[in-house]
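Look at a sample.

——
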Amino acid sequence: MTEVKISTEYITLGQFLKLADIIQSGGMAKWFLSEHEIFINGELDVRRGRKLRIGDKIEIPGFGSYMITG
């Protein structure tokens, strides 16, 4: 599991995708979310604005598992 460190209270799913180097730019987030399933804490969620907080686990089949840390 890859840890992604944040220094704020939360980041959005779109920001996470860029921070974790899954996409190259924020503009790609909408396309990526329409093409791939993303599970946050075991539940499917494709909302670009979904708030991710420390302790959240993100799984993207074919890309890996990630955990938000502070």
